[in-house]
Amino acid sequence: AIKALTKLGEDSDIAISGMARGLEDGNASVRKLVVVSFPKIVRNSTELAVRRVSERLDHPMAEVREAATRALLQFADGDVLVRVVSARLEHQSADVRWSAVDALARVAVKGDLVAVLAVRGRLGHRLVDVRRVAILAMSRIASTGDPRAMSDVSACLEDMHADVRWAAVGSLALLANRGDEHALAAVMSRLKNWRAEVREVALEALVHLARHGSSDAVAAALRCVTDENAMVRRAAVCAVVRLAEPGDRRSRAALFACMQDSDVDVRRAAASALARASECGKTCYDAAI
Length: 289
Description:
- It holds the Pfam family HEAT_2.
- This is HEAT repeat domain-containing protein.
- GO terms for molecular function: oxidoreductase activity.
- By secondary structure, the chain is an all-alpha fold.
- It has helices at about 1-5, 15-20, 30-40, 45-55, 60-75, 80-85, 95-105, 115-120, 130-140, 145-155, 160-175, 180-190, 195-210, 215-225, 230-245, 250-260, 265-275, 280-289.
- Among the domains are: about 1-80, Alpha Horseshoe (Leucine-rich Repeat Variant), CATH 1.25.10; about 210-289, Leucine-rich Repeat Variant (Alpha Horseshoe), CATH 1.25.10.10.
- The protein is built from 18 helices and no strands.
- The longest helix has 14 residues, at about 30-40.
- The model has no long low-confidence stretch (mean pLDDT about 90).
């Protein structure tokens, strides 16, 4: 049937529609044949072919969405590809949204401005899940070290939803080279945010971005061990442990001070760090709890 459709000639509506339906076939070999056959029937009616094939990007089966992406890559223009794929970042189905992230990374080259702008426009979407996949997509398509992309994702550290904030942490780690000044400045500015949950996630981002032993990063984390919020203090203790050089006196003094913290989790975090340093061992941990 697929071979018969190719004989109908280029730009035939019947051939294009029939071939697009073939992408939904349950046999992988048939879907593969459809993908490689599209260039034989599409010449001037690219818009029609894009419309018919892109409908399959919404299909509930991952195999069909994958075949549709591969088919589009055979004949569609790059900007058109970005437009139809990025639109699926807003799809009601989580599976379709995540497939769109993978597809976008395939159809757009790193740093593609059209793709970056398409994703940027969804970072402020009203739906949490759309914002989250947009953040991930940005880390896949923006160039490493792109200051605008890092600034956009850093702003998501202030999102009201925890899933979005933590997605921003992961994406920043992928977008920025360790020690990147732009990314660090954006993260450190959030350590003073009025919301405790933002300060907490900024500390985690700091750990991912700063170079080990960075005096500025360690100093920033040390300032947070006296934060008014216990959740932030605990995150600060963990950040100090992961950033400071072994034997750093200021860090050790701060950890010992945290042994007297009013919050048991902060005390445990400090005691655990000191116990790993082995100087006070189990005695520190027992004293903290």
